[in-house]
Amino acid sequence: MDALEIGTLAVPGARLHYEVRGAGPLLLLIPGGNSDAAVFEPLAAVLSADHRVVSYDPRGYSRTALDGPPTDQRIEVHADDAYRLLDHLAAADEPAQVFGSCAGGIVALELAMRHPSRVRSVVSHEPPTMELLPDAARYRELVDDAHEVFRREGVAAALRKLQPLFGGRPAPALPEAHDNSAFFLAHVLRPSTRFVPDLAALAAVADRVVVAGGHGSRTHVIHQPALVLAKRLGHELAEFPGGHVGYAKHPVEFAGRLVDVLAAAPRDDSLRTTTRGLRPCAS
């Protein structure tokens, strides 16, 4: 399905490219890794049958240009970008359902904590909160090694260094508007895997948060932080079709599971009366 609406929203330090499909309850899709809105096109086409689906290119990726030179990215800044996009597209009293995968899953959690008035429910799919793992130092070293290899040898060599996180296999080829691998390795990989969610603040919105993982990635390192995070929130992990990128590989089955999980998520209206608000963040 072609996008019904394509737009650009100016945010501090960038201009967000966004796409809107369908009509119905608002559902925001937040990509992770080096992906942009293109990775969600098959999933959005299915979901748009009964949702107003919003996807976008994160700042610095593909069609979302930065206003200045690239710098290391902050999860808080990306969460505020998502908030501004929802504020632009949604009615004043319309909280959104949110799905984010990989680093997008961390952004989705931060969005719920910082701006609960804008979020009805969140599915965070395999967020790479590696610092919550008991052997976090091991994976911090692996990520640092990949970053240094990128600086010395380039993208392909660095991505090979990350294969142990994904069962020892190369990352699957995914649809994308542009190749964002270099920006991801230079400015996103380390900040996202080092980010530690505010677990006390997350507990305050835990009733509307679902932590998810892929059936096909259960033995992969990248799956383990979701298990730990779900346990810390007192939740069972929600299992989804496919692996780490099941949303791209199995869009029909994944969409059906996502709709079911979002429909079952509790909706605590009392939490919408508070917000942590926008805080100044460097871009």
SSE topology:
Blueprint lengths: L4 E7 L2 E8 L4 E5 L10 H7 L4 E6 L7 E2 L8 H15 L6 E6 L1 H12 L4 E7 L10 H18 L1 H7 L19 H14 L4 H6 L4 E6 L9 H9 L5 E3 L5 H4 L1 H14 L19
Parallel strand pairs: 3-4, 3-6, 6-7, 7-8, 8-9
Antiparallel strand pairs: 1-2, 2-4, 2-5
| Beta-strand content | 15-25%
CATH class reads: Alpha Beta
Helical segment tally? Answer: 10
What is the end-to-end distance? Answer: 33 Å
Number of domains: 1
Order of secondary-structure elements: EEEHEEHEHEHHHHEHEHH
Query: How does CATH name the architecture?
Result: 3-Layer(aba) Sandwich
Radius of gyration based on Cα positions: 17 Å
Could you explain how this protein is built, in words?
The structure is a single chain. The chain has 283 residues and is α/β, with parallel strands linked by helices. It has one domain: Alpha/Beta hydrolase fold, catalytic domain (Rossmann fold, 3-Layer(aba) Sandwich), CATH 3.40.50.1820. 37% of the residues lie in helices and 18% in strands. It has helices spanning 41-47, 75-89, 103-114, 136-153, 155-161, 181-194, 199-204, 224-232, 246-249, 251-264, and strands at 5-11, 14-21, 26-30, 52-57, 65-66, 96-101, 119-125, 209-214, 238-240. Strands 1, 2, 3, 4, 5, 6, 7, 8 and 9 form a nine-stranded mixed β-sheet that branches. A hairpin with a 2-residue loop joins strand 1 (5-11) and strand 2 (14-21). The longest helix has 18 residues, at 136-153. The chain is globular and about 50 Å long. The two termini are 33 Å apart. Residues 268-283 have low confidence and may be disordered.
